[in-house]
């Protein structure tokens, strides 16, 4: 079977702030930016990985989500417990310095984890937890 990861979705509540963070801080390229009914879906990814993308989406647009669920999603996003993404870089210290200089919320500075991975943790403008691992 030949299956690959094409796209993963992360929620946003401020498309301009999320766009700036993923493009200007992380260096991702914008592949698509679609607006509909006052909402935006922004597809981004690493320049060297054209087949894998992150779609920043408005979670309130998800079909079948009730008003109570929308409130819960908003609360979880605000706490940073709704979504997580793992990223990797060959130079964690340089990536961390760039992320920290952007003013992003730092959750954990670069640390050697007991499970053998050196990483850091930050939150994007929507509160999503991003762990950045050092690729060896």
Provide the gyration radius in Å: 15 Å
Gross geometry: globular
Instruction: Name the beta content range.
Output: 35-45%
**Which spans of ≥5 residues are poorly predicted at pLDDT below 50?**
none
Describe this structure as you would to a colleague.
The structure is a single chain. This protein is an alpha/beta fold and 136 residues long. The chain has helices spanning 15-25, 67-79, 92-101; strands at 7-11, 29-36, 39-45, 53-57, 84-89, 105-112, 118-123, 129-134. The longest helix has 13 residues, at 67-79. It is globular, with a radius of gyration of 15 Å.
What is this structure's SSE topology?
Layout: E1 7-11, H1 15-25, E2 29-36, E3 39-45, E4 53-57, H2 67-79, E5 84-89, H3 92-101, E6 105-112, E7 118-123, E8 129-134
Parallel strand pairs: 1-4, 5-8
Antiparallel strand pairs: 2-3, 3-4, 6-7, 7-8
């Amino acid at each position: 079977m030949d299956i690959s990861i094409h796209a993963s979705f992360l929620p946003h509540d401020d498309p301009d702030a999320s766009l700036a963070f993923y493009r200007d801080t992380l260096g991702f390229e914008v592949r698509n930016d679609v607006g509909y009914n006052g909402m935006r879906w922004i597809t981004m990814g690493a320049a060297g990985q054209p087949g894998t993308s992150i779609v920043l989406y408005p979670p309130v647009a998800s079909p079948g989500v009730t008003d109570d669920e929308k409130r819960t999603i908003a609360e979880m996003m605000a706490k940073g417990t709704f979504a997580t993404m793992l990223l990797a870089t060959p130079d964690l210290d340089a990536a961390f310095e760039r992320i920290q200089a952007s003013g992003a919320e730092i959750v954990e500075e670069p640390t050697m984890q007991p499970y053998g991975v050196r990483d850091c943790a930050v939150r994007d403008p929507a509160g999503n937890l991003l762990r950045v691992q050092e690729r060896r």
